[in-house]
Amino acid sequence: MAVPKKRTSESRKRKRKTVWAAKAYEIARKAFSQARSVLTGRSNSFYYTTNGDISK
């Protein structure tokens, strides 16, 4: 069974957490931007239904 030989340092933990949080923030920002684009009607690249009709 694989067991780590030494404890991970606090600074390394913080770096990994920061990288993870930055990636999550970027994905969330893009998703919010796309949602806002669709809701305001400025989107030209998404197909979605409104009252059963397919709109662009």
TrEMBL record:
One GO BP: translation
Family: Belongs to the bacterial ribosomal protein bL32 family.
Database matches in InterPro entries: Ribosomal_bL32 (IPR002677), Ribosomal_bL32_plant/cyanobact (IPR044958), Ribosomal_zn-bd (IPR011332)
Organism of origin: Dendrolycopodium obscurum (Flat-branched tree-clubmoss)
Protein's name in the database: Large ribosomal subunit protein bL32c
Subcellular location(s) per record: Plastid, Chloroplast
The organism's place on the tree of life at top rank: Eukaryota
GO CC annotations, alphabetized: chloroplast; large ribosomal subunit
A GO molecular-function annotation: structural constituent of ribosome
UniProt cross-references to NCBIfam families, sorted A to Z: rpmF_bact
Keyword Isomerase: no
Coiled coil: none
Alphabetic keyword roster: Plastid, Ribonucleoprotein, Ribosomal protein
